[in-house]
Amino acid sequence: MATPLAYDLEVVETRRRWPEALRDFGRRRPLGAIGAVVIVFMLLVAGLAPVISPYDPVAIDFGAMLARPSSAHWLGTDSFGRDVLSRLVHGSRTALLVGFGASILGAAIGAILGVGSAYFGGRVDLYVQRVMDIFLAFPLIILALALVAILGNSIPNLIMAITVPMIPRCALVIRASALSIREMAYVDAARAAGFGHARIVLRHMLPNVMAPFLIMLTAFVGQAILLESSLSFLGLGVQEPTPAWGLMLSGAAVEFAERAPWMAIFPGLAISLAVFAFNLFGDSLRDALDPRLRTQ
Amino acid sequence: MTDNGALLEVRNLVKHFHVGGGLFGGAPGVVRAVDGVSFAIRRGETLGLVGESGCGKTTTGRCILQLERPTSGEIVFDGQNLTKLDDAGLRRVRRRMQVIFQDPYSSLNPRMTIGQILAEPLVVHGLVPDRAAREARVGELLRHVGLLPQHAHRYPHELSGGQRQRVGIARALAMEPALIVCDEPVSALDVSIQAQIVNLLEDLQRQFGLTYLFVAHDLSVVRHISDRVAVMYLGKIVEIAGRQALYEDPLHPYTRALLSAVPIPDPDVEARRVHVVLGGEVPSPLNPPAGCVFHPRCPIAVDRCRSEVPVLREVKPGHWAACLLA
After folding, report:
1. Based on the number of CB atoms within 10 Å of its own CB, is A54 exposed (0-12), middle (13-18) or buried (19 or more)?
2. pLDDT digits (tens, 9 = 90+) for A185-218
3. What's the CA gap between B320 and B326, in Å, rounded?
4. B91 touches chain A (CB under 8 A)
5. A122: distance to nearest CA of chain B, Å?
6. Residue B233 included in any domain
7. Nearest CB partner across the interface for B108, out of A186, A193, A196
8. What does the pLDDT read at residue B271?
């Protein structure tokens, strides 16, 4: 037995702690931090919606139709006299549910397909990639529209319809980084040790593509929110009277845009802000997680 | 070359890679990475496999481990023909046949602690089902390679190159293998660390009765550790002999040229020595020369070498060379 080496005894502390990493992120990526703050704010609003919204979002009040923003209705009311602020607050639940649901599902399925495709290579890779190419050939919104038309429009179906176009986009990116992981000697070592395919893909390859995965995930949430709003705007997403931002923009809002602009402006702002926040956060996350872009 | 004490026998191993020939891939071609290699390794022996970059020595090692499926040929390990085994059978054999890689940085999964890396094979193969016993076994493995049980809690990026290579060796030992394929295990390390690792490998061989296939391009390291040495050129073995015989009385002109390129740490000797310097480049394995693959660069080639393919034959007892003129 060889004698232990003396220099091995000192303990090197190189792993950064969470609060420190967060402070670092805030200092180096102020825009990303703003995005993160907006996201946290949205999550709080969605979580506390019944507590903080001043009115019932579906309560119709014919006495206050198209009311201007005032102390009673901060952001005004719509053509049915429903409080715009309350509907915005409750709409954030729909937006986040569909946004996170679709992007987590889409990114997860995409990641497994991407890593599997890269690991098995050859024919499996060829077929998986061609199927992905077929899906990529359709524009995001067209594919989602077609799926909603087939499935019918309930919230689970809406999530499904937005998930499907996300899958190939994630699979493509994850496959690219999994291909380089596949060439790593530790994957060969795992194969030489006689480990099963599932273990190699899930334990050895998937954890090493977490960085691009998280980046895709945050970018997808923004896109999914936008897609949900678009579908709802087109009447193929969430149905009345459920509060949803895209729905608030459609229908009567178009008709009353001149007389009651607040009906359109505030949900529009909410959508923009949400998508903007997720994109900013995603971009900064990419920069922070990519060691090649990390400033010393 | 059949030997009854052989742990591993490679017969006529061929590995061809197909390149190009896709839709836009250009002209199709075949890279003859390994082209008819045969050798045997006895139990407890170390066979050194040397040759320059791209000669197929690493591919040979990968074929033996079945990381690449050979195009043709047989690999008989402990009486079992690996090329005929199915996945499940192969998995059982893999326990007894391990590998140490060249690059200590890419050979350890950065997301797992050293302890997890070493415990994983024990769990998968059900070698040590008990958790506490497994921890003890990991500690023992770390001690075998000169590290401490405390290292089990570290991540690979917290260790130096030499320490990581020790972890790689411990991982290979975890399954109590009979054969370890060492794929340039010291090439990526500092010279001072190289010596430590080579000595460690020798100690472990004595302790556990291991058999090594030691792939390397450093002739002095190979001389130090090997019992027998095989020299590869362009996918073929050109000479194979006992260490002493090969280094002191090389029969193949390529081996002579290789040995003459090793510097001797004595300026007087170095000044008086005659160097054999080869002209030209290694031909492409896409289109190897006819006849003896070495003839375009061989200083003693004759007409016959252009047309006749030399077979590996026993020129002296235990000393095989693939040269028409040897």
Report:
1. exposed
2. 999 999 999 898 999 999 999 988 888 888 889 8
3. 10
4. yes
5. 13
6. yes
7. A186
8. 82
Would you say residue B1 lies in a domain? Answer: no
Q: Burial of A119 by CB count in 10 Å (0-12 exposed, 13-18 middle, 19+ buried)?
A: buried
pLDDT at A9: 43
A242: region left, alpha or beta (phi > 0 left; psi from -120 to 50 alpha)? beta
Q: What is the ipTM of this complex?
A: 0.87
Is the domain of B90 the same as that of B239? yes
Q: Which of A3, A192, A199 sits opposite B65 (nearest CB)?
A: A192
H/E element, A104: helix A84-120
Domain region containing B261: 6-21+28-96+177-321
Q: Is B55 on the interface with A (CB under 8 A)?
A: no
C-alpha count within 13 angstroms, C-beta hemisphere, residue A77: 23
- Residues A76-129 pLDDT 10s: 888 888 888 999 999 999 999 999 999 999 999 999 999 999 999 889 999 999
Given pLDDT bands bounded at 50, 70 and 90, which one contains residue A249? confident
Domain boundary among B130, B151, B176: B176
The answer to whether the CB atoms of A194 and B124 lie below 8 A apart is: yes
**B282 and B231 within one domain:** yes
Question: How confident is the model at residue A1, as a pLDDT?
Answer: 44
| Total CB pairs under 8 A between chain A and B | 85
Kindly list the structural domains of chain A, giving each domain's residue range(s) and its CATH number in brackets, ordered by start: 31-43+82-289 (1.10.3720.10)
